[in-house]
Amino acid sequence: MNLSMNLVMILVSLFVIVPVVWFVIAEKSGISKKKKAFDAIAKANNVQFTSIEIWNNTCLGYQEQGNLLMYINTQNSEPKVQKINLDEVRKCVINKINKDYNNGDKHYSELSRLDLEFSFLSNTNPVAITLYNGEDDFSQNQEVARAEKWLALIEKQRSNKNSIVAA
Predict the structure, then answer these.
(1) Which of 140, 132, 141, 136 is CA-nearest to residue 114?
(2) How many domains does the chain have?
(3) What is the pLDDT of residues 96-124, one digit of tens each?
(4) In the Cβ-directed half-sphere of 2, how many Cα atoms lie within 13 Å?
(5) Nearest CA-CA partner of 154 in 95, 90, 111, 97
(6) 130: domain range?
(7) How far lies 62's CA from each of 4, 52, 84, 85, in Å?
(8) CA distance linking residue 48 with residue 107, whole number of Å
(9) Is residue 16 part of a domain?
């Protein structure tokens, strides 16, 4: 009786553990493939990331040499690549677009789009890089915190540049 009970417990445990391990390995493999693809695109653009963040089909990286921010989105078959020289940035802001819903007497809003918007010293058109788009991404994964983190990094690099110029 004890032997059969132990055997059943082991089988049930394996039915739970094996799929979990399988999904973890598959996810790490997917992230590794994305990182290799993003690194290849960066290398083709002569960029060596000092700081990088990868999520969904998006990569945002910073290269200290040249004070360069690079955005890569592989949502479509043709990757979207944007390089932004932070020395030319006048201002960077987080642009949150919410969609409002009414459900009877209750009103609520949901994040629809989240961008980092750059305006430049040379009066060229502003550039927006999309960190979250509700139409393309099915779930939110700390996008606002990610945007605030990158905004802080951008502001830090800009203030470092300004303090060097002032000295």
Answers:
(1) 132
(2) 1
(3) 988 888 887 888 888 888 999 999 988 88
(4) 0
(5) 90
(6) 48-166
(7) 58, 6, 10, 10
(8) 46
(9) no
Is residue 27 in a domain? no
Q: Is residue 9 a part of any domain in this protein?
A: no
Tokens 């990331």 belong to 49
Closest CA to 154 of 122, 119, 125: 119
- Amino acid letter, residue 80: K
Phi, psi torsion values for 122, nearest 5 degrees = -90, 20
Kindly state the tokens that stand for 141. 């994964």
Amino acid at 15: F
Residue 23 lies in a domain: no
Are 110 and 134 in contact by the 8 Å Cβ rule? The answer is yes
- Residue 117: predicted pLDDT: 94
pLDDT in tens, 51-65: 888 888 888 999 988
What is this structure's pTM?
A: 0.72
Q: Which letter does DSSP use for residue 97 in this model?
A: E
**DSSP string covering 21-59, please?**
HHHHHHHHHHHHHHHHHHHHHHHHTT---SEEEEETTEE
- Percent pLDDT > 90 in the chain is 19
| Cβ(84)–Cβ(158) below 8 Å | no
